[in-house]
User: Fold this.
Amino acid sequence: MLSELEALLKENRLFSPSEDLMKNSNIQKWMAHYGITSYDELLQKAQNDPEWFWDELAQELEWYQPYENVLKWDPPHAEWFCGGKFNIVHNALDRHVKTWRKNKVAYIWEGESGQVKKLTYHDLHRKVNQMANALRGLGVKKGDRVSIYLPMILELPIAMLACAKIGAIHSVVFSGFWAKAFQERANDAKVKVAITVDGFYRRGKVIPLKENVDEVLDDIPSLETLIVVKHAGSPVHMKPGRDLWWEEIIHEQEKECITEPMDSEDPLFILYTSGTTGKPKGVVHVHGGYAVGIYTTLKLVFDLKDQDIWWCAADIGWITGHSYIVYAPLIMGVTSVMYEGAPDYPDPNRLWEIIEEYCVSVFYTAPTTIRLFMKYGEKWPQKHDLSSLRLLGSVGEPINPEAWMWYYKHVGNRQCPIMDTWWQTETGMQLITPLPITSLKPGSVVKPFPTIKADVVDNKGNPIGEGGGHLVIKTPWPSMFRTLYKDPDRYVDAYWSTFPGVYLSGDVARIDEDGYFWIQGRADDVLNVAGHRISTAEVESALVSYDAVAEAAVVGKPDQVKGEEICSFVTLKKGFDPSPRLKHLLREHVRREIGPIASPAFIGFVEDLPKTRSGKIMRRVIKAKVKGDDVGDITTLANPEAVDKLDHPL
Assistant:
């Protein structure tokens, strides 16, 4: 269990959105409609009557049959919009093609090679209908599971929407995972049909996904059909009677398809966690509550308007992509950018070129990406006209204040508020987040979204006044996961048993004197140095705040005297070279920023840190190397060669 965590790093800078942005924001207009005059009043009213809040927003969507009750809460089990008949695809597509949005662009897709495709809502609707009819023709019925193993190409959202339209449950597997991970997930879900691609591009190379998949298909006994998308033109073997080409099966299909009315609580998808610390967990989300939660947060947090160009630069293989590339933007009827390749390929201009080319106005990315571009330097975004941007966002892990400030200055030109959001695969939607009317502190996720009661508690569940502890959620929310697929006991044990009726996030956080939340990392990313409990995130943040440092990873190494000593690996920005003097300067910098207790005993300079294909630093692997343990499975790493170089830093 977690002892109280010491909060050593302080951040007091405050940034407020412009008066114009606040006045014209969706949240301000929504509040005015209900006679709410301030952010604090909104939080209080929503806390006092959460069912009123969610009922009003659910009514903005279309229901086949009205729900009878907003919420049935029997901890830890929730049912939202009980008795309502609903389909997320009706709200994402069907209703739009009956309006002027029919000819509006839904997706601007750019491939790594520079190819561009645009799909209107009408185009997308027809393609989804054709694939839905094709799936029905293959015997896929309501409740059947379909595994989707595709890269960031347009067939990915089309496949997801086609499944949801007919009531099938999709299970997307991140294309960066090895085929063994796909097999494991497909077997757990007992999928009937799977969808993959001949190959896709990554940093100029073709990844032969179908060839890789062929090695495991015989070990998925439930699989009847494999649908293959032609994308890279890679030569593939097609097994007669099992493998079918995407284009061939949809070619003769009708362009109309009746959408299946679903119960609000019917499953929409299973999304497996990465499994880096054990067997992957199949997180189950449902049609009704999930749709209401993600629609509400995209509308009120990111303030999207009809004229906006939205770019969530995540991968659809993760929950961020499910919620904020596929479903919520389509429900809102906005235009989204999708990009297939790496953000810095063929050079560090790529991301900024895309923003400039398509006049992206609201941009959502991960701290890992921001730190990558910090390493390259501000000269790259400065080459481009980024004046179309009006709002920025951060997701995936805590963003250190230095990266926040770089993002604010060099991408947002000090004009764009940063919506730094905390949420998880399990939560489905953003739970702790600023709004376009709140003041911001670099590195803080500000306060819980309206109706969400979050807290930081000790091991007994008591609220902590100062310092860090367990981040918990004490109230239900519409897009919460309903269970773990085929594992309801694990659902209770892993998330709801430590503090009965209270959701345990697995993250540690602290709350400052203004009620702002600061996420400090995972509960197992905590150092015990001479009796002091120190967050690795705080030490990493202090290191990255030094001019020369682009990224840092901090782990603990067992020490007989101190319990643990702090070991750090850092990558340097362009133009800086490793040296003993730089190590000394970094230690002194950490001492000034946090205190002597947090000064690293070891600093190693490396060219790259081991990362998953989603860009997250693999601290588990680094910790194993430092302790001399077996690093275990590293098949999810994007750069396995970085592991060996930890033994011989620069």
